[in-house]
Amino acid sequence: MRDRLLEIYDRMLAAFGPQYWWPGDTPFEVAVGAVLTQNTSWRNVERAIDNLKGAGRLALAPMLALAHDELAALIRPAGYFNVKARRLRNLLVHLHEVGGGDLEGYLAGDLAIRRRELLGVNGLGPETVDSILLYAGNRPTFVCDAYTRRLLSRHGLCRPAAGYEEMRALFMDHLPADVALYNELHALIVRTGYHHCKPTPRCEGCPLASLLPVWGAKPAV
DNA sequence: GACCAGGCACATC
DNA sequence: GATGTGCATGGT
Q1: Which CATH superfamily is domain A27-136 in?
Q2: A79 touches strand C (CB under 7 A)
């Protein structure tokens, strides 16, 4: 299993190069982006983050001071703005009350405990929590998503209906707990997902074709 | 106009 | 435990 995962990693890296994730300037921006990007394209998230930046609200206290409607209006381009305004506030309140307002210090605490605490915040699921821990906190936890399930299941490495924790364990049980590796591997899986679903379901001539012969958004028959 | 995008909570069976 | 639904904008 380790060798198969690393071969996929090597192929993707050779094809697309390092992805330099997460696209955000500060840990706080990364954490906010992790919520905003839930089921949403990154381009729309960027608009929302630009709005927050432009309004001088991209920091814990200034964002926490916003009324629901004000926050929702700023993040509108990211979609689900009422839901996400609530989820962001839940995260901010948690960081303020449990984390003492110090995001980086908070994320540096015991990994299993921090993960469990963050999963207890309403609106933060496993992908969002692992993204915050890995990309904002530089902690070794693997991030999985819909692309990951497609990649694994189409290579017979997991069931098509595999749960999140099952996929995460698959990576973490077979790969070293290496932040740089986890960072790049997840980013490359997403990058490969874009590449394959945009042009054509069957990616002819792709450097990954022998490893990833079929990708389309809907499982190919 | 249909389909998709770096999910998640909640209701229901 | 599995399955269905609401949430919403913007690109292709």
Answers
A1: Hypothetical protein; domain 2 (1.10.340.30)
A2: yes
Q: Is the pLDDT of residue A30 over 50?
A: yes
Distance between CA atoms of A31 and A24, rounded to whole angstroms?
Answer: 9
Give the nucleotide at minimum CA-to-C1' distance from A37. Answer: B6
Decide if pLDDT at A141 tops 60: yes
Q: What is the pLDDT of residues A35-46, one digit of tens each?
A: 999 999 999 999
Bridge partner residues of A202 (DSSP): A214
Residue A153 has a pLDDT of: 87
Amino acid identity of A192?
Answer: T
Predicted pLDDT of residue A138: 98
Domain residue extents for chain A: 2-20+143-197, 27-136
Cβ contacts of A174 within 8 Å, gap of 6 or more: A1, A2, A5
A218 touches strand B (CB under 7 A): yes
| CA-to-C1' span, A42 to C10 (A) | 11
pTM: predicted TM-score of the whole model, two decimal places: 0.93
